[in-house]
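Honest question from a wet-lab person: if I give you the sequences of every part of a complex, can you actually get the arrangement of the whole thing, not just the pieces? Trying it with mine:
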Amino acid sequence: MMDKALEVLERRLSRQLAASLETCVRCGICADSCHYYLADPRPEHVPAYRAELLRRIYRRHHDPVGRLFPGLVRARELDDELAEELIKSAYGTCTMCRRCVLNCPMGVDNGLIVRTARGMLAALGRVPKGLQDTVDVHLESGNNMAVSEEDFVETLEWLEEQLQDEVDDPEARIPVNQAGARVLYTLNPREAKYYPLTILAAAKVFYAAGESWTLSTRAWDVTNYALFNGDDEAAREIAGWLAQEAAELGVEEVVMAECGHGFRAFRWEGENWLGRSYAAPVRGFVELVAEYIRTGRIKLDPAQNPEPVTYHDPCNQARNGGILEEPRYILKHAVADFREMHPHGRENFCCGGGGGMMAMGEFAEGRLAAGRVKAEQIRATGAKVVATSCHNCLDQITELSKHYDLGIKVLNLCEVVAEAIILPGDRQ
Amino acid sequence: MPEIEYKGQKIEVDEDGFIQDPSLWNEELAEYLAKTEGIEELTEDHWKVIRFLNEYYHEYGIAPMIRKLCKETGFKLKYIYELFPSGPAKGACKIAGLPKPTGCV
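Yes, you can. This is the full assembly:
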């Protein structure tokens, strides 16, 4: 019955995973790097403890002693009880933010261990429902909110009219399916479905920069929740659609909308899942905007954003994605009073909403409790606005503001930039 | 699964407070759910949004695009966000008895 899960473990047993499973020296440094442990210091919240659940299964099948006398090395067969423990641990108390990886003297990748455990549970059909539904809807409809092509196009046309009003130019466009455009841009379905102002903001930035860009009606979803449920087959299929569309449109680059996990999944994992290189390179929207500012393609007036602003680094864009300097460069040009939280950048704490946690209501209580670390970081800055670069972080921080009474507003970077943009007409 | 106690009846909700059985929804329940979202009194404009969401869901089995919501109610986007401070997905859809949407919400 558990064979499918064990097959996943065998198939994914790379050098990196094997080394991570073999080399923990139980020093416990990882405990203090985890927001779950800091908010509620229980043994189950120590990253090494979570990893130990998978290590026991690994030892049962790979340790010479574990195979013969499992009890001697605390090896354990995967059974129903252990699977239940794994669900609570791998899905319920870890956002795969990988802060503990950075702080491990042995370089153990607990994020990889937890994702492997999730992949094993996925093979058993035991992914928490809200998370699995999101992957299923994506596979069935082409985007994770089942937005139909007709609805998508109608929404973009409506936004195009608003863009024309906003920039006072009847020629302003939100281009769709333009072969040969320089940039293929992507969207988070929630932008089209519920929160279209970020689409408008991004379109305004592209307009001001005079960019040659397009959206696609065939493959436009920036997300890939299979990074979270651990199912590599699904992850490969989803990444493949966008890769193929970029090749068919012949664009020079794919630009991922502000979405932490979507950026990491497509930029850093997709080619490995697919086993081939992309036709066009991939960048995050923030990287492109920083370039626009550096090269003078857009001009910003920081006085338009007078309130104190701090920045929350999405784990999958910063620590796990390498985008560290660009958001700061942008904010220093776009707002009058930028304040760092501490720690930040590579060492930033997860907001608590990562790893698909927002889609798993059953773990909401622990998610909000673990978010206390982030709430305290934000409060200490005295900022009135938290800018971030991920819709998931945005929702979690908005909930934290309510729960911990922070009295802040949370915005994506594109909105902050769009507010500060000086359009060519304004300069005259 | 958590439950809310409403007029002596126990109704199952998920951990985010979305009711599990859309057929149990009625306007009095909507008033109760609105309070859990920090809306003390539902105005006629709230009702216009809520009724449209509920009817659309029963016809198509999915929540409408915000574009459709604006078009049908004649309300500006910003006004809808003002009416439902937790947003159209977590606020308005919950009060209108829709299930929790998939994706990043």
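Two things worth pointing out. The domain at 299-427 of chain A is CATH 3.40.50.10700 (Rossmann fold). The longest strand of chain A covers residues 253-256.
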